[in-house]
UniProtKB/TrEMBL annotation:
Domain DUF2264 stretches: 22-382, 390-655
Protein name according to UniProt: DUF2264 domain protein
InterPro entries: DUF2264_C, DUF2264_N, UCP014753
Pfam families: DUF2264, DUF2264_C
Source organism per UniProt: Lentinula aciculospora
Length: 663
């Protein structure tokens, strides 16, 4: 059968042909991204208009996002000794956007204004690239920029990572000697941000009581900000800078477990439209630790097993993943789309404007290092052997990461967004999150197909008219021995129903399986409770580019297709193998290969999900569900030989059985 036509463009062709191995290669990729913005830039340069979708904030702020966020890359390129012919667009934009008399004025800031977010990129640019983006400006323009950035110093800000944006505004103003810099305000913000620190390198995204440690606590905001500050303020604030570097060193030894051998990051939490910003921590670590600018008597050594080659590999593999294998991340003209692997508005938050995705340009911070730096001259290294086939407990994040068997994912209980976020149950409440398979988001609120219920236990109490998934997790904690730990938590989908869940990571005996145990307690009411537990959602098309066929009597077949019988379901496609098996002691669930609605999964727009389904109506009795979940991504063209692993069914350890007392 002929394959469908896939349109290409000069931009996509350039991405695929760029090896992205050297500084020149990465600078070329950034340049192509910046070039693509030219036709959408306003005459005076202050606004970039990329689309017509709305946000909770105003349109001018949305177009300011399109202007400011690419500066993370542009300023880094300049700081490292590079140049960009279109830099004048941003220089002009800084002058016109901050000029109250100019028709492209961004507007003065108010309390909790989105404009505050964009000050971080501008402050960073003034700090590292002021010689090109500040010094050529007129004294009037400099005064206007100072007044505009300094205008946030007396405004109320959200008690979150946003406070870093004001720190960078003042840091930038200080570095260009603007009288509007407020060192006292900056110190107060930094002192308060330090109260977010919870140990072992980790910071939460807010005050005590926040249980949200997503990519904002790492690559999107806090860790990157700390690392940049530690380099840029070393002379003025050495003690704090040393503390930030120490935190980063500890955090790096955890964060590396969120990346797989191919360069992909585990998909978890909000703002995934920022895409390769997920790897920005490694760029910022290189910028902060590389001694090429002189070490000032400071020890910038990396914690083992991290090496410069490892860090370079982590960063560049992630950028290559996007440039080489995810064309849907960009439209034909080279503009980042609103979505993840493809345009998908179901994923978005209400603060995602068409310019928002350019937060991804934080990944280019490594360009701030010159061609002669250690980062760019060292040979790129693969993922460390000592960290392969490992499981790691992330005690602060209430997660367990694993890459045993070659599948990198995490088990999670206890995190939830502290304020309303679209699709928060999908972004924080699922039982597991993968780097290879991604997660799914609902496209509507009725059928199971609309739900996209991968890696979750979906519950219906109204005859499957609607479904609920875990959003708020209670009483989450770790159990088990030092050598073997698991997660235990509670969830209350209805006033008369409670669900206790145990999540058990894989073992070397059954490396591609993890186990889930649920105890459902129905205390009262007349409802019939329906459940649907999902495994990993995977690409649902066959080699003939048609929907996967059902395999009859295919328990021992490695052929692509879907297979469901009794208490198991399995899906095999070019993306990998996903399966689910019922191990419950006294209930029987039915396996199904469910074709989810289009555009639920954020990686595979056409996905199939293996699920187990059942109904219960007996009150006052514990309903025990025991589930084994299988997942194997097909990377590096490996598409066979997995059946032996499939047959290695996991078992509950005696220690776990004694703890949960299944009855």
């Amino acid at each position: 059968m002929a394959k469908p036509f896939t349109s290409s463009s000069p931009f996509h062709d350039q991405c695929r042909l760029n090896p992205l191995r050297s500084r020149t290669d990465v600078a070329s990729f950034l340049t192509s991204i910046l070039d693509a913005l030219g036709p959408y830039t306003s005459p005076n340069g202050a606004r970039v208009h990329l689309g017509f979708t709305a946000t909770h904030f105003d349109e001018v702020a949305a177009q300011l996002e399109g202007f400011s966020r690419p500066i993370w890359g542009l300023a880094s390129l300049i700081a490292g000794g590079g140049s960009y012919d279109g830099a004048s667009r941003w220089r002009s934009g800084l002058a016109s956007g901050t000029n109250p008399e100019n028709e492209e004025f961004w507007g003065n800031m108010r309390d909790k204004d989105q404009r505050m977010v964009e000050c971080s990129a501008i402050g960073y640019a003034l700090s590292v690239a002021g010689h090109e983006l500040w010094e050529p400006l007129s004294e009037t323009a400099k005064k206007n920029i100072g007044n505009w950035l300094g205008g946030m110093n007396d405004k109320e800000m959200p008690n979150t990572n946003w406070l870093w944006f004001r720190v960078f505004a003042n840091l930038g103003l200080s570095n260009v000697n603007s009288p509007r810099a407020d060192p006292q305000r900056m110190k107060a913000d930094l002192d308060h941000l330090d109260t977010f620190y919870i140990g072992d390198g980790w910071s939460r995204d807010g005050p005590e009581g926040i249980v949200q440690l997503d990519y904002y606590s790492s690559s999107f905001a806090i860790q990157v900000a700390q690392l940049l500050y530690s380099r840029l303020a070393q002379k003025e604030d050495p003690k704090r800078c040393e503390e930030f570097r120490n935190r980063a060193g500890m955090f790096a030894l955890d964060f590396i477990h969120y990346f797989d051998y191919e360069g992909r990051a585990i998909l978890f939490g909000r703002s995934l439209v920022y895409r390769f910003a997920m790897s920005a921590f490694w760029s910022a670590l290189a910028f902060a630790f590389d001694p090429s600018n002189g070490n000032d008597g400071v020890d910038y050594s990396l914690p083992a097993p991290l090496t410069w080659g490892v860090i370079k590999g982590l960063q560049l593999r992630n950028i290559r993943y996007w440039a080489h294998t995810q064309p849907g991340a960009f439209d034909r003209s080279g503009i980042l789309t609103l979505g993840f692997s493809y345009p998908n508005h179901n994923l978005l938050e209400n603060y995602n404007s068409p310019g928002s995705p350019y937060w991804a340009c934080k990944a280019f911070i490594c360009l701030a290092l010159p061609e002669t730096s250690i980062f760019w001259t060292v040979e790129e290294e693969e993922y460390p052997d000592s960290l392969r086939n490992t499981t790691r407990v992330m005690k602060h994040a209430l997660q367990i990461t694993t890459n045993i068997g070659g599948h990198t994912y995490l088990l999670s209980s206890g995190q939830q967004c502290s304020y309303p976020v679209k699709q928060s149950a999908a972004k924080y409440g699922k039982l597991a999150y993968s780097a290879a398979f991604g997660y799914s988001v609902p496209v509507a609120s009725l059928t199971l197909e609309e739900l996209g219920g991968d890696s979750t236990l979906a519950i219906s109490g109204d005859g499957e008219e609607t479904w609920k998934c875990r959003r708020v997790t209670k009483e989450a904690h770790f159990e088990g021995s030092v050598e073997k730990q698991w997660l235990r938590s509670m969830w209350y989908p209805f006033p008369d129903v409670e669900i206790e869940t145990w999540l058990i990571p894989p073992t070397l005996d059954a490396p591609l399986w993890h186990i889930r145990v649920h105890c459902i307690r129905m205390h009262s009411g007349d409802r019939v409770l329906s459940t649907a537990e999902g495994g990993w959602a995977v690409y649902g098309q066959g080699q003939n580019e048609r929907a996967l066929d059902s395999i009859q009597d295919g328990e021992d077949s490695e052929s692509e297709g879907t297979f469901a019988t009794g208490g198991l379901a399995r899906v095999v496609s070019k993306a990998g193998v996903a399966g689910i098996v019922d191990l419950s002691p006294d209930v029987a669930r039915k396996g199904q290969a469910l074709r989810t609605d289009a555009n639920t999964n954020i990686i595979a727009a056409r996905a199939v999900l293996p699920v187990l389904r059942a109904e219960y109506e007996e009150k006052g009795k514990n309903i025990w569900l025991v589930t084994a979940v299988f997942g194997l991504p097909f990377d590096n063209n490996k598409t066979n030989g997995w059946m032996e692993e499939w047959k290695k069914r996991p078992v509950l350890s005696k220690e776990l059985l004694d703890t949960i007392s299944i009855k």
